[in-house]
Amino acid sequence: MLPAGLDHEQQKAFYNCFAAKVNATYATMDQFFNAILADTSDMSQIRRLESQCANDLFSWVVTEVDVIETVPATPAAPKTTAGQQTPAAPAKK
Q: Among 4, 50, 8, which Cα is nearest to 25's?
């Protein structure tokens, strides 16, 4: 994702650079789509191509930061014998 504040010419230059790098990396559109849909490691290749263009055009240094979140499991609602969820108790007033 490009940062806010780039003018139209800067955006155009970035996407032209990126398209040229993608075209040089993948021989066909099918190869490109298969690579990004089937192999998550190619997403890193796409990020590298984006970073190269950002560096070439704007002298930006792009740093990737992986964020791993752990979400605790929530217990399932109790079930009745008929398989229906037990309705919540009414709120006390």
A: 50
